[in-house]
């Protein structure tokens, strides 16, 4: 092969590699970020799901006069409650939403 042809091939090859790598970086970064976010959200959801005890309000063990998140005082016996390790209880759906969106800490005593 003549040197000129080799150089052209080489330059062409480098251009293709740069193009592919550049393209990959542009597409892969948002995917990677989204993947990391999804994984973090999944872990958080699992932690929210696994913390504390879930009881029905009608259960003898569950004692809750008021859910301090929605300020509801008349808690129906069939409603699901979640009691955090600090022994504070809330509607399950209220505290799960709170912990998913705001903070994993108990809204009353701030313990994790
Ligand atoms: Zn509530
Ligand atoms: Zn608490």
From TrEMBL:
Q: Which SUPFAM superfamilies match?
A: RING/U-box (SSF57850)
Listed transmembrane segments = 12-35
Enumerate the GO terms in the molecular function aspect: zinc ion binding
Alphabetized UniProt keyword annotations: Membrane, Metal-binding, Transmembrane, Transmembrane helix, Zinc, Zinc-finger
- Segments forming domain RING-type: 67-110
Q: Which domain of life is it from?
A: Eukaryota
This protein's name:
RING-type domain-containing protein
């Amino acid at each position: 092969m003549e040197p000129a042809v080799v150089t052209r091939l080489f330059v062409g090859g480098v251009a293709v590699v740069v193009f592919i790598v550049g393209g990959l970086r542009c597409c892969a970064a948002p995917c990677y970020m989204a993947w990391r976010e999804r994984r973090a959200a999944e872990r958080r959801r699992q932690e929210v799901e696994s913390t504390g005890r879930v009881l029905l309000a009608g259960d003898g063990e569950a004692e809750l006069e008021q859910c301090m998140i929605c300020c509801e005082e008349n808690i129906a016996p069939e409603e699901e409650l979640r009691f955090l390790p600090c022994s504070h209880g809330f509607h399950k759906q209220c505290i799960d939403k709170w912990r998913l969106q705001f903070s994993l800490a108990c809204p009353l005593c701030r313990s994790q």
